[in-house]
Amino acid sequence: MLFAAFLFSLLEWWPHCCFGENQAKIVDVRSRTLSRGNDTGVSGVAYANFMSHTFSYLNITGIASNYVMNGGECGFACVNTPSCFSFNLVLIQDIVGKVLCELLPSDMYNNSDKFVYSSSRHHYSIRSPCISSPCQNNGKCAALYERNNYTCDCVNGYTGKHCETVVSIWKIAGWTLIARFSNDDTKNWMADSGYWWYDKQVAMGTTSSTTENADMISPTFWLTSGNELKITRSDDTNHIPLLQTTGNCLTGQTFRSKLKSYGNFRNGTVWASDQCLGNCTVIYGGQYMSTDGFQQAECNGTIQSPNKIGFWCDWSSGDGAVMMIGGGGSKCDRADHGIGITEANAASFVDGGTDEFDFGYDANTGKTASQSYALNLWIR
Predict the structure, then answer these.
(1) Alpha-carbon distance 300 to 365, whole Å?
(2) Cα separation of 117 and 258, whole Å?
(3) What is this structure's pTM?
(4) Strand partners for 338
(5) How is residue 321 annotated by DSSP?
(6) Where would I find the H helices in the chain?
(7) d(CA 288, CA 135)
(8) Angle at 27 between CA 23 and CA 32, to 5 degrees
(9) CA-CA distance, 202 to 329, in Å (whole number)?
C-alpha cells in the first residue's frame, strides 16, 4: 500500500513526514517533484509537488473525474494514478460542498495551445523546470518529473540542449548536403524499423561537415526539394561526384518523398522481388572505380542496366539495396551493391541473421565493407 503525500508549492521547501507501510519515513522533497512510490530511498511513498495556476484550464480529454472535498483530495488521486500528470479543479460546489476533480493524462507544456483562461476552474501541474520556458526557438519542453529535469524537443532547423543552435547546412555550387552513410559506426540506416529513411525528424550527426566518417541526416533530407542527386566521398575535399543523376530524377520532390512514393517498407516489409521499383540515369566521375558500392557501375544486368541508380532493388532469394548503383541481377553479382545493402533472403530492413551495410558491395556474412571513408548524399 502506498501513502501519498500531496504538497502545494507553499510547502515545497519543507521536508515532509510520510508514512509508508508499517513505518514512518522522513522524506526531504526539496529536490523532488514526483514519485509514484518506487524511487530509490523512498520506496513505498508516493508524492507530488503541485503548483496552482488560478483561473486556468487545460482543455484536453481527461482520464477520470470525480467530486472531492478539496484540491488535496484531487492531488492524492492524481499521484496514485500512474497516467495522471495534472488536474483541473472546478470551483463551483455541489449541494454538499464538493467540487469536480478532472484528472489529466498530460500537462500544459505538451499542450500549450490548450492551456486557456477559465473563470470557473483552477489548474494544477507538477512543478517542473519547464515553468521557466527554457526551450528556445519554439522548442517544446518535455518534463522529466521523477528526475526534476527536462528535455527540449526542437523544431526543424535547431538543435542543442535548449534548441539554441541553428543546424548548419552545407551548401556548395547549388548543391545541399542531406545525408551521409558510414560503416564506421552504428548501422543507423539499416535499423529494422527503417526509421532514418522514413520517420526521423531530428538532425543527427555533423550536418556542417563533409569530411566526417559517421552517419548523418540533415533536416534537408525531408525539407529540401530538388531535381538531381549526387554522391561524393568524405575523403574528397573537392566534392567531385562519384555519381550524379540526370534527367530530373527527383521531379521537384524531397529525397524522403521520393523514396516513400514507392511504398512503406518499415519493420521488415519486403520491398521488391527481382526488380528495382524505380531508377534514374547517372553519369560517373572522380574515384568511382575504386569506391565501395560502385563495383557494378558499368555492368549490364537483368534488372538494371549500367549508368543507373535504382531504388528499392532485389534479386532472387536473397539480397537487395535501397539504392543500387549500376547493373543488377544474375550477370551483375545480384543486387547488394550501393547504399543500404542487405543479404536478407527477401530484401528488407530485417536481416534475419544475415549481414547488411550502410553502403558497400556484397553483404554476405563475413564480408567487410569499407570503413575508411563515408559517402555524402547531395540534392540540387
Answers:
(1) 26
(2) 45
(3) 0.61
(4) 324, 360
(5) E
(6) 71-79, 195-198, 220-223, 255-260
(7) 44
(8) 140
(9) 36
Please list the residue range(s) of the chain that carry CATH number 2.10.25.10.
133-165
Q: Which three cell numbers, joined as nine digits, stand for 378?
A: 547531395
374: its cell numbers: 563515408
pLDDT at residue 369 in the model: 84
- What lies within 8 Å, CB to CB, of 368 at 6+ separation is none
Closest CA to 285 of 234, 235, 240, 324: 240
Give residue-wise pLDDT tens across range 31-62.
567 777 665 555 556 788 899 999 999 999 99
pLDDT digits (tens, 9 = 90+) for 327-342: 999 889 889 999 999 9
Between CA 33 and CA 131 the distance in angstroms is 13
Q: Which residues pair with 256 in a beta bridge?
A: none
Of residues 61, 67, 68, the one with CA closest to residue 86: 61
Rounded Cα distance between 272 and 265, Å, is 10
3-state secondary structure 128-182: CHHHHCCCCCCCEEEEEHHHCEEEEECCCCEECCCCCEECCCCEECCEEEEEEEC
Superfamily of domain 133-165: Laminin (2.10.25.10)
Where in the chain is CATH 3.50.4.10? 46-127
Catalogue the E-assigned strands of 163-286: 165-166, 171-172, 175-181, 216-217, 229-233, 243-245, 275-284
| Record: fold of 46-127 | Hepatocyte Growth Factor (3.50.4)
Q: Which three cell numbers stand for residue 62?
A: 481527461
Evaluated on CA atoms 76, 77, 80, 83, the torsion sign reads negative
**75 CB-side CA count, 13 A:** 26
